Each structure stands twice: as C-alpha cells, then as structure tokens.
Amino acid sequence: MGLEALAYPFLFIAIFFESFVLVTLLSAPARSARGRFMDAIFPSVAIIVPCWNEEKTVAATCDSLLALDYPKDRLEIILVNDGSTDTTPSIMERFAKHPQVRIIHKENGGKHTAMNAGVALTNAELVGCLDADSFVESNSLKEIVTCFNNPQVVATTAAMSVHKPENILQHMQNAEYTFGITLRHVFASINGLYVTPGPFSFYRRETLEKLGGFRYGHQTEDMEMALRIQQAGYEIGNAPRARVYTKAPSTIVRLIKQRTRWITGFLRNVLGEYRSLILNRRHGVLGMLVLPTALLAVGSGVLLFVVSIFTLAQNAIVAIEVRAGIPLSYALVPHGALDWFYLPVNFYILLAIIVLATSIAFIIIGRRISRTTGDIALGMVSYTLLYGLVAPLWLIRATSDVALGKRRNWRY
Amino acid sequence: MSLVARNALIALLITVVLVGTVAYAINYLNNARVTELSAIEEQLSIDSLSLETQFSLLEAAPCDSSASSATLTSELADFSGRLSYAEDQLGSDNPQVIRLKERYSLLEIRDYLITKRLAEACKTKPVTVLYFYSNAGDCGDCDKAGYALSYLRNTYPTLRVYSFDYNLELGALKTFIAVTKVKDTLPAFVINGKHSYGFSSLADLEKQFPKGALATTTATTTKP
Fold first, then answer.
1. How large is the ipTM?
2. How far is B137 from chain A (nearest CA, A)?
3. Which pTM value belongs to this model?
C-alpha cells in the first residue's frame, strides 16, 4: 500500500465533493436557475472598467460593452484610468464623446480604489466590473440583471472562458474555467460562492455602499467583497449564460504568478478576517462544505504532489539501481506479456480515474449549460495531462508565501 | 431536512457505493488472478507428473522426453512472473500467495530433479541456477540479482533458473536447502553445483558460470 494510502482520504473527499455537485446540479434550485428567462425589466446599470496599463485590450473591452444588447439610457460605462503609464489614457479618450461613457483619471491606488471611484460616480441601481482584458457577449447583461429579480441576491457572477486560447497552457485554463462554470452555477443555487470575479460580476450599489465599498483584500478584492457579502448574510447569484471571455496567461511563469496571487489572497482572507465563516452552520454550504473543501484542496494538492515526487524519485532510484550493469537493450524495454493478468489497476488508480472522469463530465456540463461554443477537446486533453503537474507549483508557492509572510507584487 | 443536508447525505451514499464498488472490483480482479494462478499451477503439476511418468516409462530411451522438460521449465518461468506480480498486488503475507509459492517451489524442485536425472541419462550438461532470495527486507541486493537473472534467462532461454524464497516455511524446501548446503547469506546462488553468495554486478555473476556455459546454452536454443 505504502505512501499512496495517504491519498485515499483526499480521494474519498474529492469523490464526495463531486457527487454533491452532481446531486445539487439535478436539484430544484439549480434546475430553476437554468430555466430562468430574460425578462423585460431593465434596471439602471453602471459598468466600471478599472485600467492600469491596459493599452492593448481596453479599446476592445470598451467596444464589447458598447455592443451590449441593453437599453442605452439604462447603461453607463465608466472607464477608470488608475494612474496608467502607457497609452491607456489616450486610448480611453477616444471614447470620451460617447454618451454612455464616462472617464476618470486618478492616481494609481490599486484596483479596489479604481472600483470605488467608479461607484462614487454613479447612481445606477446595479454596478458591475469588467477587467480591461475581458470581453462580453451582447446578451450577457440581460442574463445578469435577471438574477437580481430575487431580492435576496445582492451580487451576480457570469460564466467565464478564456479569450481565444492559443497555446496548450491557455487551452488547459479554458477547460478549467469551463469546469468552473459548472461549479459556480451549482454553488450559486445554494448560496455557496466565495468569489465575484473581476470579469463581469455585478452588485447592488446600495449594498456595496452599505458594506463600505471595495477593499485591498490581500490583492483579491473580488474575493474579499464576496466573503464580506456572505458574512453579512446576503446571497450571490450566477448567470450561467452570461458569457464573458478573458485573457489568460500564456506562459507558465505568468500563470504561476497569477494563481499564487489568487491562492494567497484566498488563504489570507479565509484564514484571517473571514475565519469565522469556516464550519459555521449559519453560513450553510459555504461554511460547512465549500470553504473547508477549498482549504483541504490546497493542503492536499501540496501534500500529494510532494508524496508523488518522493515516490517517483524513490522508484526511479530503485529502477536505476536494479538495472545498473544490465545492457540497455534489455533494461529499457518493458517486459511481461500483454495479458489481463498484468492489468495495472489498483484502488488508488481507479479512484483517481473516477475523480478525473467526473471532472471531465463537469467541463462538458459547464460548456452545455453556458452554451459555450468552440472546440474544448484540446482543453480537456491538456487539462487531464497537465493540470495535476502544474497546479501544485502555485499551491506550494502560495502556501509557503502565506506561511513565511511573504508579499509579492501582483502585476505580471 | 434542508436541501444541502439531503444532498450531502445522497452524495455520501454515492461515494460509499462508488468506493465500495472499486474495492469489490479490485478484490474480484485479485481473486481472478489467484484463480488463474491456481489453474496454471494445476496444469503445471499435471505436466510435471506426466513428465515424471513419461521418464519412468521410457527408462530405455529417456532422452525422448527432454523436449517436454524444456517446455515445462519455460512454463515455470512464466508462472514465476505471474506469481511475482500477484505477490506485489496482494502482499507477500497473503495466505493464497504463500500457498501458491509453496506449490511453485515444489514444482521447481521436482523439475530440477527431473532435469538432473535427464542430464545424467542423456549425458547433457544443462546450466542450472538455484537462486535463493528473501523479501523479508533483509536482502538489499535481491532485487538486483533477480533482475540480472531475468536478463540472463531472457538472453539464454535454455538456462534453467530456479528461484526460491529462502524463508518459505515448507518442509521440502528446508530439506532441499539442507541437501544443497545453502547458507542464509542472501542472495545465494548454486550454479551447476557451485555456491556463491551476494551480488555486485551482472559481470561478476556471469563469471560464476562455467567457462563457455552461457555461449553453449545459447547455441542449444535453436534446438526444437
């Protein structure tokens, strides 16, 4: 049995978690959310686009917002230049004469300050955020505002995908984001979300002001705000057909930097100010299942990676030692008959296959419920083969940063 | 009961059923392996007995049965590989594995004795290796020695390698160890009656073989 036995409890929990997601996906609240239709009520909306050196994408982001299928007099777009040092301000000014667009130039203070500056400028009922590297589909806003028909809902998230994935790493992230669509849809149906991501999340302005606006939030102001909303007893919804596409890191170094920021932000927020949510029955599925499982996923990811590397190294050393002095023509060729008898399956491998197969099913489900188009096959292959190898890198980096109190610059 | 609690209970039930099914499937597969091994072992046992009977019947011309003996040795080698794999999967302390190992050891001893008798009767000089190992954690070089012997057996198919777990509690094996005078310094080899202990390298092991023995055995592999 050996070291792999350490993985059994985590695999059991992973299967339980995935089973819970599947059962909840088939439950009435999620089914009802999927059956929700856009209605003809159009609350006033302001979409804030915080920008810091976004010269390459801000124009396209703004164009996609102006193309939204929503009454023009009910929608305003607030571009916030957060002290950019590139040509972002001049690109923004091209939109200055547009009746729906308002522009703010301010000293650099971080994304949360840019969001607060935008919120302070508007009286709209709903306030949304769109990162300046993201683009929306025209019906997305109508899908979003429909969620606010429920008076308990004070914030709503969209369905994210990677914008034009090109390399294998971006395809992997696209599959992961599509997996996230299913999770976000399911957990929103039972109020279990703890992030309102930068790409196209919306809030009731009154609630935002009541809660005191955005904070630094350990470089993850979207997560901090969602946790604060949950702590205050409100609900966060999800519009699975509100499509938004965001740029994803194209290199492993950038990806590790981005995810390290996300994970350190999660750990610092959840283990810090929002510790009281964990295992708190008052916060339902978020406190009792989602946050404990997310924390466990971080810990188990690190542990299993270290154990796997150790086991792999140990086996490699033994294999090399055993083969020392044996001609390579024999040592490098696998021996043994092709026979069912030698089928390399054991308890660990079969459980891992169940977890992986269910994850793939979630990707397919996410794609279906969000009506996402485009090829996902390469994404699923790269997700299957790569994710388990690269995710531990940022998990280890993030946990060591938190343990050692190390702070990093979030820009990459 | 709340929706979340109900779903959690259903999920737990699904998880238990899935994990239970996996455990059942693994157990089923392992049982099927043991059944397969038992069937092969049964067949080997019959083959061995048949060879012995054949040998007794053909007292006048015993060399006619040598082809069958070579086949049996090859089947024993295949059985050894399967048994070793089953031992990895089920554990060396599994009662079924131990029982199969005991019967396998008996078959090996019988084959070794038949080979010796045939060699004497037919005036041939087969190269036989008795290899004694331990998997009780007290033999650091046994894995290397086992792999080197696998290589030799693969390269020289007529080489007869008989592997024995030195610690197996089997009367016949204990007697065999006493008769062949093998000490408990493992790994131990008896190559055509000559004893050697320990393993350092393939080259050193090859030096233990009678001069030209490996080349000779290679030449005989073409014999049908």
1. 0.89
2. 14
3. 0.84
Q: CA B201 from chain center: how many Å?
A: 21
* Interface contact A404, partner B, CB < 8 A: no
Q: What is the pLDDT of residues A102-115, one digit of tens each?
A: 999 999 999 999 99
Of B11, B23, B82, the CB nearest to A20: B11
Closest CA to A64 of A251, A258, A247, A249: A247
Give the single-character DSSP code of B210.
Answer: P
**A212 close to B (CB below 8 A):** no
pLDDT reported for residue B218: 42
Q: Are A174 and A379 spatial neighbours (Cβ–Cβ below 8 Å)?
A: yes
Cα separations (Å) of A358 from A240, A348, A384, B69? Answer: 20, 16, 11, 52
Of the candidates B7, B26, B154, the beta carbon closest to that of A350 is on B26
**Which pLDDT tens digit goes with each residue over A182-209?**
999 999 999 999 999 999 999 999 999 9
CB contact under 8 A, A322 and B151: no
Q: Which residues of B touch A23 (CB under 8 A)?
A: 7, 10-11, 14
- Partners of A201 in the beta sheet? A129
pLDDT for A205-225, tens place per residue?
Answer: 999 999 999 999 999 999 999
**CA B183, CA B193: separation in Å to the nearest integer?**
14
Cβ of A322 within 8 Å of Cβ of B26? The answer is: no
For the cut 60, the answer to whether the pLDDT of residue B65 exceeds it is no
- Smallest CA–CA separation between A92 and chain B, in Å? 47
**Sheet containing B160-165: which strands, arranged edge to edge?**
B160-165, B128-133, B188-191, B194-197
DSSP at A217: G
Q: Which helix (H) or strand (E) holds A343?
A: none
C-alpha dihedral (B148, B153, B156, B159), degrees to nearest 10: 120
Contact B201 A325 (CB under 8 A): yes
Neighbour count for residue A191 (Cβ, 10 Å): 21
Q: How far is CA A104 from CA A101, A130, A297, B66, in A?
A: 10, 15, 40, 97
Q: What are phi and psi of A204, to 5 degrees?
A: -75, 125
What is the pLDDT at residue A38?
A: 74
Asked if A345 has any chain B CB less than 8 Å from its own CB, the reply is yes
A231 touches chain B (CB under 8 A): no
pLDDT band at B87 (very low <50, low <70, confident <90, very high): confident
Closest CA to B14 of A191, A197, A358: A358
Closest residue in B to A346 (Cα) is: B26
d(CA B198, nearest CA chain A) in Å: 14
What are the pLDDT digits (tens) for B133-166?
Answer: 998 888 989 999 999 999 998 888 878 899 999 9
Residue to mutate among B1, B2, B3, with most A CBs inside 10 A, is: B3
Q: Which residues of A touch B25 (CB under 8 A)?
A: 350
